[in-house]
UniProtKB/TrEMBL annotation:
InterPro entries: HotDog_dom_sf, MCH/BMMD. It comes from Yinghuangia aomiensis. This is MaoC like domain-containing protein. PANTHER family: BETA-METHYLMALYL-COA DEHYDRATASE, MONOAMINE OXIDASE-RELATED. Gene3D superfamilies: Hotdog Thioesterase.
């Protein structure tokens, strides 16, 4: 596995399976970010914004889960 520094201008042929590409930017997702995005997209899954319901869900560890649409938007944005 090779670790590559952040750099612009790569083509599809430049990528190798298993290599790690460091990105110069990062983003911490807060509960407010997740809630706002969930409400903005009218996602009605209560696991994204209802702390009382999420606390009883053993799959999520009792925590609110981040909206997957927000995850995709952030990955594409970075």
């Amino acid at each position: 596995m090779t670790v590559h520094p952040a750099r612009l201008g790569r083509f599809i042929e430049d990528f190798t399976v298993g290599d790690v590409y460091r990105h110069p930017f990062g983003r911490t997702i807060s509960e407010a970010d997740s809630t706002w995005f969930t409400l903005l997209t009218c996602n009605t899954n209560q696991n994204h914004f209802n702390a009382h319901l999420a606390a009883g869900n053993p799959v999520t560890g009792g925590r609110i889960i981040v909206n997957s649409g927000l995850t995709v938007a952030l990955v594409l944005g970075l």
